[in-house]
């Protein structure tokens, strides 16, 4: 799933290419991805893109006509850019393409989705806060408002596993499964540690790890073509997605805990005092 750094990279990529361009076509190949019915997709035709913005993991194309095309790529969605889009008309159900947007210079992009779980979401709205997922977003961790004091108050107000807090979009916008693993590894904290158990010094460390990890990842994504952002994300991971490899800090093997629809990765030596965590999918405690 694209998270804050990759979404930021996509926003920068689109900003350079479509701001000032008129939308000349919107083709819907999967009705399931469209979560609004009024305005219709055709209402965007003829409008000029004024800005491209990020809201957590959401991307918004804001137009001169007061309408915004807002989308969330979710778990298996992606944006595929073309300097010269094919002229053929999309056929529903015949490809991974869910939505195509054309611009007045012949360029455009497809929103695609792989796999069987269809969660790609597209909204056409008059105000981005009309999107329920955006209206409920918590604080952006790279915003000026996200201070150490604000983070400390957030941690103190919740009694939950720290990984869950980092991933909760209603609390902190933009961090998902991958970067929460990375942040916790940098902070040397167990993903199962409770927020109520953290000492002030650990909160300091976690705050610094969160800001540094995201800032570095955003910088790494900046300027990259859309097609390269997925590979860049994978290449930059220290522990996430690296089960069985050596920890880059201590050399211990990177371990995994699997759930029904996701998994997390961590280093026992760096994060849990050398004790492996229970793999709940296997219903056993590793010793």
Automatic annotation (TrEMBL):
Transmembrane segments: none annotated. InterPro entries: DNA_glyclase_Znf_dom_DNA_BS (IPR015887), FPG_cat (IPR012319), FPG_N (IPR035937), H2TH_FPG (IPR015886), Ribosomal_uS13-like_H2TH (IPR010979), Znf_DNA_glyclase/AP_lyase (IPR000214), Znf_FPG/IleRS (IPR010663). SUPFAM superfamilies: Glucocorticoid receptor-like (DNA-binding domain) (SSF57716), N-terminal domain of MutM-like DNA repair proteins (SSF81624), S13-like H2TH domain (SSF46946). GO terms for biological process: base-excision repair. Its cofactor is Zn(2+). CDD domains: BaFpgNei_N_1. Keywords: DNA damage, DNA repair, DNA-binding, Glycosidase, Hydrolase, Lyase, Metal-binding, Multifunctional enzyme, Zinc, Zinc-finger. Pfam families: Fapy_DNA_glyco, H2TH, zf-FPG_IleRS. One of its GO terms (molecular function) is 8-oxo-7,8-dihydroguanine DNA N-glycosylase activity. It catalyses: 2'-deoxyribonucleotide-(2'-deoxyribose 5'-phosphate)-2'-deoxyribonucleotide-DNA = a 3'-end 2'-deoxyribonucleotide-(2,3-dehydro-2,3-deoxyribose 5'-phosphate)-DNA + a 5'-end 5'-phospho-2'-deoxyribonucleoside-DNA + H(+); Hydrolysis of DNA containing ring-opened 7-methylguanine residues, releasing 2,6-diamino-4-hydroxy-5-(N-methyl)formamidopyrimidine. Belongs to the FPG family. This is DNA lyase.
